[in-house]
Structures are given as structure tokens and as C-alpha cells.
TrEMBL record:
It comes from the Eukaryota. The gene is LOC110736697. The keyword Methyltransferase does not apply. GO terms for molecular function: ferrous iron binding; stizolobate synthase activity; zinc ion binding. It catalyses: L-dopa + O2 = 4-(L-alanin-3-yl)-2-hydroxy-cis,cis-muconate 6-semialdehyde + H(+). Keywords: Dioxygenase, Metal-binding, Oxidoreductase, Zinc. This is stizolobate synthase. Belongs to the DODA-type extradiol aromatic ring-opening dioxygenase family. It holds the Pfam family LigB.
Length: 270
């Protein structure tokens, strides 16, 4: 397996579903340039953790071909015609189930029907438009905390040796009740900017404990994440990279004053 080994995990802020069609969003161009500028290694398969699949116990999807789930409402009609028919990854789903069960999580489920929600297919459609890499999605648990998700990531780390690309997909800030519709692209509301900067500093300094205890440590934590659903995917990706990982900010842009598209690469030292 040596040659296939992947040394990085990623956390991507997927922002609004309009990322799928809106060319004015800088994050769209960042993802379209993925293979040229960010990550040119072709993974054997992809494990993606999206903020849009919540279950009480960890669940992975195991399908032959991924359905495209339109889990958003009131958006432009062309978005509901987009398809991302990536092959599923039933072997990877089984492997994830096995690893998490061995790590001490009593029940890990396999869902044989669910496709990919927009937290998964929108970024992947831009990164890997050929839809030729098998994808498996893993759910988050809202009844658990950040440390639990970090430890889940730690358990999944061996998958990198097997050529699996682990991606957390969420949003570095995610308060949909406080979007500023008139804001220009780079106008940032202070609380959002302060949380975003704190996160960058904590990740680059390797303060994983602070990131896991963000509710106590970060400024405006509950304002940035009234619900942690779009933050937990970061904890999984960070845990999978390991305690000594070097974090790198690979993209930052803003939308609607409070929505950060900050994205990170976590490299495991050799």
C-alpha cells in the first residue's frame, strides 16, 4: 500500500449551495483548481464527513452509485438538475464500520440507500468533476461533543495508509440567522472575523485541545456556531491528521458578511 499513502486530510468550508453554480464566489474557483494547485495525488477513494448528515450513532453510506440529494429549498432551478454520480465505496464503508467499532464505538451503521448531500457533492463536483473516484459519506453526531469527533478522526487515521482521502466539509463560521445580505464580498462582521482568526491561529499553532474545547476557548463561539454541525467535520479531519499535524490555511473568502469559506490542509509529518 506504500505508494498509495496519503499524508493530508482537509477541512473545506462549502458555504452556500449556490457554490455549485455561482461563478462570482472565489471559493468555487479555489475548488475548481484543486488538482492543479492543492492536491494532485489521485486518491483510491474518498471519505467525506458533511455537516448535513446527522444521526444519533455513526453511519456510513454503502451504495453502488451515489444519488445526488437536493437538501436545500428555494434555490435557482438549474441547481436541481445537477448530478454527481460518483461510484459508491462499499468496501470503504465496511472498513470504516470495522475501525470505529474496534475503537470502542458500540454501534456503527451502514445505510444502503442514502446518496450524497450537498455538503459532499457540491465541493466534490468542483474538485473531481469526472465523478470517477468512489465516495463514502460518514455522519456526525449532534448528541456528542467536538472531542468525540476528534477521536473518531484519530481512529480513522489508518485509512490514509490505504489511499483514502479524508475530507471534512462544513463552514468555518455558520450562523444562518445573522447573514448580512447587503454586505460586499470582503466586508466581514467583527465577531465572525475574530472567530475565524482565532481558529486559524489555534490550528496553525497546533492547539488541538483549544479547538476541541472551542465553546470555552474561542471568542463568539456560540455566535459563530449556534449549532456545531458545520464545525464537527473539522474535528474529524484534524483528528485523522494526528496530534503533530501542521495546519495550513489554503483558502479564505467571505460571503454575506458572516459566512467564512476558510479551508485547511492538515499534513501528517513523515
Amino acid at each position: 500500500m506504500g505508494a498509495d499513502k496519503i499524508n493530508q486530510t482537509f477541512y473545506l468550508s462549502h458555504g452556500s449551495p449556490t457554490l455549485s453554480i455561482d461563478d462570482s464566489l472565489p471559493a468555487r474557483h479555489f475548488l475548481q483548481n484543486w488538482k492543479e494547485k492543492i492536491f494532485d495525488q489521485k486518491p483510491k477513494s474518498i471519505l467525506i464527513i458533511s455537516g448535513h448528515w446527522e444521526t444519533n450513532e455513526p453511519t456510513v453510506n454503502s451504495v453502488d452509485v451515489s444519488d445526488t440529494i437536493y437538501d436545500f429549498y428555494g434555490f435557482p432551478a438549474p441547481m436541481y438538475k445537477l448530478k454527481y454520480p460518483a461510484p459508491g465505496a462499499p468496501d470503504l464503508a465496511k472498513r470504516v464500520q470495522e475501525i470505529l467499532t474496534t475503537s470502542g464505538i458500540k454501534r456503527v451503521h451502514i445505510d444502503k440507500k442514502r446518496g450524497l448531500d450537498h455538503g459532499a457533492w457540491v465541493p466534490l463536483m468542483l474538485m473531481y468533476p469526472e465523478a470517477n473516484i468512489p465516495v463514502c459519506q460518514l455522519s456526525i453526531q449532534m448528541n456528542k461533543d467536538a472531542t468525540y469527533h476528534y477521536n473518531m478522526g484519530r481512529a480513522l487515521a489508518p485509512l490514509k495508509e490505504e489511499g483514502v482521502l479524508i475530507i471534512g466539509s462544513g463552514s468555518a463560521t455558520h450562523n444562518l440567522r445573522d447573514l448580512r445580505w447587503g454586505a460586499k464580498d470582503e466586508e466581514v462582521v467583527p465577531w465572525a472575523g475574530e472567530f475565524d482568526k482565532w481558529l486559524e491561529d489555534a490550528l496553525i499553532s497546533g492547539r488541538h485541545e483549544d479547538v476541541n474545547n472551542f465553546l470555552q476557548k474561542a471568542p463568539h463561539a456560540r455566535k459563530a456556531h449556534p449549532s456545531p454541525d458545520h464545525f464537527y467535520p473539522l474535528h474529524v479531519a484534524l483528528g485523522a491528521a494526528g496530534e503533530t499535524t501542521k495546519a495550513e490555511l489554503i483558502h479564505r473568502s467571505w460571503s454575506l458578511g458572516t459566512l467564512s469559506y476558510a479551508s485547511y490542509k492538515f499534513t501528517t509529518p513523515n
